[in-house]
Specification:
Layout: H1 22-31, H2 33-51, H3 53-69
Helix pairs in contact: 1-2, 2-3
Length: 70
């Protein structure tokens, strides 16, 4: 879980669990379509806002501008 904890926010963008708990997490999502939809939408927005090329390029440009102005 630690490897994904910086990207996945439990109950918001996904479900974090230990390997032996995967079945419970899958069943929770399976039995709660509203939760599944909310997790998917939140995860999509998170990735779009943090990892899309346009976002990363803007972050690099901002960092470049910051250091050039110093």
């Amino acid at each position: 879980t630690f490897a994904f904890s910086h990207t996945i926010k439990h109950g918001e963008t996904g479900l974090l669990c230990q390997p032996g708990e995967w079945t419970d997490a899958i069943l929770e999502i399976h039995h709660d379509p509203e939760l599944a939809k909310a997790l998917a939408e939140n995860a999509y927005e998170y990735v779009k806002n943090h990892y899309y090329p346009e976002t990363v390029i803007k972050q690099i440009e901002d960092a470049y501008d910051f250091f050039v102005q110093k």
